[in-house]
Amino acid sequence: MGDRDDSACLQAAQQDASAFSELYERYVDRIYSYIYHRVGNVHDAQDLTSRTFYRALSHLPEYQDKGIPFSAWLYRIAHNLVANWHRDRQRRPVVALDDMIIDTASHDRPEALAESEETAQLLHQLIRQLDPVRQELLVLKFSEGLSNAEIGNIMGRSEGAIKSLYHRTLLAIRKEMSKKGINIDEDSF
Amino acid sequence: MKIAFKRISQWFGNRFGRSAKSCPIVDAPQARRPVNVEPIEGSVQSAFHPIELPRGFREALRDNLRVAAQQHKTGLRIEHSRPVRQLVWLTVSLGVVVATVTTVLLAHRGQERSQS
């Protein structure tokens, strides 16, 4: 049962909604992680994760595999809900990606620790200042570990466009970091 | 005739092709050194720590989804209350009330005028 691929699970869930729990178990961690990094707080991340799976469950009979895998479809639902969430909160200065705290336990030298913390803080600020599309790309890439093709499926862009945007985003981050006097090439995390 | 035409076109090609190469109007773009983005990737990667889903939440949502799936089976459907939907209903109801009152008032006034 656990080794079944997505399409088999999906078929079972489309015939019998109670089989949806297997798909839920497969994706809940990834969807929660994605949403958490996009909204920046536990409460809203839990709320939006629930909504994502409720919506997926109710729209499951309408899902057709037209070259877009189920995971991408699920991420799209989450993406739309997060976009609505951001739209609703445009008036309030919501700070996303707030709790991305670097794991500093592995550092031995206190000065290296302070340096890397400072760099990490700056990096967080820079990521927060990026436009939502670039932020989403970074979350999907680094938090979810998706390939360019998978990200393209979710964001509705070609693989080449994602690759180019990714490259430009990294260069923009590096440029901003060096403006602030931090040369990433020499930094060791 | 064909050969002559071919030779003339060849000569033009060689002549202008060569001159274009020898004195280009626009500077040919310099070959760029590929930028190594690996260090930046490493830095950004370290900023995204793994997120752990709270266990209680995971179980509660799984149970709720199971109930919702059962209700789907029996044809029932849970609809969450949405403030927007409530607002639409409120606006429509208010509009109907205002329209009714206005119609009654206008009809009444028209009747009074016709009597006077």
Account of the 3D structure:
The complex is a heterodimer of chains A (189) and B (116). Chain A has 8 helices and no strands. Chain A has 2 domains: 1-101, Rna Polymerase Sigma Factor, Chain: A; 103-189, Arc Repressor Mutant, subunit A, CATH 1.10.10. Mean pLDDT of chain A is 79; it is low at 99-108. Chain A has 189 residues and is an all-alpha fold. Chain B is mostly helical. Chain B has helices spanning 2-22, 38-47, 55-73, 83-115. Chain A binds chain B through residues 16-18, 20-21, 24-25, 28-29, 32-33, 36-37, 42, 46, 49-50, 53-54, 57-58, 100-103, 119-120, 123-124, 127, 138-139, 142-143, 167, 170-171, 173-174, 177, 184-185, 187, 189, and chain B through 35-37, 39-51, 53-54, 57-58, 61-62, 64-66, 68-70, 72-73, 77, 80.
CATH topology of the largest domain in chain A: Rna Polymerase Sigma Factor, Chain: A
Summarize model confidence as the mean pLDDT of chain A: 79
Report the strand count of chain A.
0
Q: What would the average pLDDT of chain B be, to the nearest integer? A: 77
CATH architecture of the largest domain in chain A: Orthogonal Bundle
Q: How far apart, in Å, are the first and last alpha carbons of chain B?
A: 107 Å
CATH class of the largest domain in chain A: Mainly Alpha
Main sheet summary of chain B: none
Rg of chain B: 40 Å
Which pair of chains forms the biggest interface, and how many residues does each contribute? A-B, 44 and 32 residues
**How many helical elements of chain B?**
4
Helix/strand structural class of chain A: mainly alpha
Model regions low in confidence, pLDDT < 50 over at least 5 residues of chain A: 99-108
The coarse silhouette of chain B is flat
Throw out a few tags for this protein.
heterodimer; A: 189 residues; mainly alpha; 2 domains; 8 helices; 68% helix; B: 116 residues; flat
List the helices and strands and how they pair.
The complex is a heterodimer of chains A (about 190) and B (about 120).
Chain A: H1 6-15, H2 20-39, H3 42-59, H4 70-88, H5 110-129, H6 132-143, H7 148-155, H8 159-179
Helix pairs in contact in A: 1-2, 2-3, 2-4, 2-6, 3-4, 4-7, 7-8
Chain B: H1 2-22, H2 38-47, H3 55-73, H4 83-115
